[in-house]
Structures are given as structure tokens and as C-alpha cells.
Amino acid sequence: MSKDVVKSVGRVFSVLELFKTHQKPLTATEVCNYLDYPKSSADALLKSLVNLGYLTLDLNTTKYFSSLRVTKLGDWLPELFGASSDALQILDHIHKSLGETVTLSMPNGIHMQLITVITGTFPISLSFQQGAKLPLFTTGIGIAQLATRNDEEIAKAVKRANRRATSAQHRVNLDELMIDVEATRTKGYFEAYNRVVPDTGAIAMALPGVSSESALVVAVGGLSDRIKKNEAKIIKEMRQAIRHYKSD
């Protein structure tokens, strides 16, 4: 590493570039071996990048991987040069058709992280900060994502989460969770009301992913009464957009 580079800064970008080179999840030990970092320093760095949203951590395999938030650092460049993202075009289409807040999220440990947020056009619309993390096991986007995994993967994730729970209130009831998961698998979507913000609702659908654990989720959210009234229209628009996504 150049003497002109601050060590901590250089290590951050070396880690991000390492994932670009290998294009697969890596354990902390593997990162240490590839970059010749002390284990304690690597652990602290990796955990910090997870907390910042630039890496994700799979609790089942204890492997780290780049978050799509990394792409947000330069996502303005393609637009500047006249290019565009198919995924963002799909979200934009849903947003223009419905006027509600549309989000794209990905799993990150025991959370779902919002990687794209397009706020609704109604005077009262859901508003989330891009990069925000929401619970995996108790939100519509989380349940839609879990429904893409097999039962064994879900059980392992719940077991790990419950080990980290600081109180009984934060423990996940696997039986109750699986009722929602099975309903989502049957319908192809999950509708959630008053789960994150009072008097609001959302409909979430998973997009086809490279693997079930990395499947992205698109969601449409707004005031509960508005979402309930327009459920059929929202579901139709989302399904059409996802069919377009699959055909690309």
C-alpha cells in the first residue's frame, strides 16, 4: 500500500475491491488471508462496513458480501452518460402507475436494507431513507424475501436471530412466521399493514435472484386505507413489472 494512502482508508477500498475480484461471499478469515490483515483489524473493519450498509453478512454461513449500496456510490454516472438501469426503470414504471412509494430492498443479516426508495406523489406518502434497515422477520419485505428460501434455511436464520435476542419480546416465533411464509408462497406476495409505521400498509414481492438468500424485494407502500382500496391494481402492476424483469 502506498505511503500516501491513509491505512484505514486503503483497507476499506482493498476489501471492496477484493469482492469485485472474487465475486463471491468470503469469510473474515478468507479476507485476512487474501489481504494479509490482522484478524482483529479485519473483524472490526468488516463489521463497520456491514453497519454502514456497504457489506452484507449471511448469519448462516458467516460470510460477507458486497451490498448493492456500493453501486449507489456511482449510480449517477450511467444517468449522466445517458444510460439507465432496467431495475430502476421497473421501479419507476410502478411508481408512475400508482403514485405510491416504491422500494427495492435486499437482505442484510437479520434486516432488509432499502437500496432504492422512490417516494410517493401523494400529499401524505411513506418516506424512508435510502440505506435504512428494517427487520427481516416482522416486515412485509422481509417475509416476501424469506418466502424465497427453503424451510431449513429459514429455521437456521430464526435460530441464529433468537440466540442474539436480548429479550423474549425480540425472539422470533418460527411457527407463526411460517404461516406468513406459506401464504406468501401461495399468493406470490405479502401484504402488511401497521407493521412498520402506524396506519400504513405495503405489498411486497420478491424478484428472481441468483440465489434465494440474495433475492431482491420490490414493495409498494402508503396509507393503509389507500393500499387496501387499490390492492388488486397494485398487485397487477407489480406482477406485470416482475414478468418484464424475468423476461430480460
Structural overview:
With about 250 residues, the chain is an alpha+beta fold. It folds into two domains: about 5-65, Winged helix-like DNA-binding domain superfamily/Winged helix DNA-binding domain (Arc Repressor Mutant, subunit A); about 70-245, Beta-Lactamase (2-Layer Sandwich). Helices cover about 50% and strands about 20% of the residues. The protein contains eleven helices and nine strands. It has a six-stranded antiparallel beta sheet, with helices on both faces. A three-stranded antiparallel beta sheet has the order 1-3-2. The N and C termini lie far apart (about 40 Å).
Record keyword descriptors for this entry:
248 residues; alpha+beta; Beta-Lactamase; 2 domains; 6-stranded antiparallel beta sheet; 3-stranded antiparallel beta sheet; 11 helices; 19% strand; globular
Roughly how many Å apart are the termini?
41 Å
Instruction: Provide the β-strand percentage band.
Output: 15-25%
Mean pLDDT: 88
Whole-number count of domains: 2
Query: Would you report the number of β strands?
Result: 9
What is the share of helical residues? 40-55%
Major β-sheet profile: 6 strands, antiparallel
Poorly predicted regions: 80-84
> What is the CATH superfamily label of the largest domain?
GAF domain
- The CATH architecture designation of the largest domain is 2-Layer Sandwich
In what order do the strands lie side by side in the largest sheet?
Answer: 6-5-4-9-8-7
Tally the helices: what do you get? 11
CATH class of the largest domain: Alpha Beta
Counting helices, strands and paired strands, the structural category is alpha+beta
Coarse shape: globular
User: Rg, please?
Assistant: 19 Å
What is the H/E string? HEHHEEHHHEEEHHHEEEHH
CATH topology heading of the largest domain: Beta-Lactamase
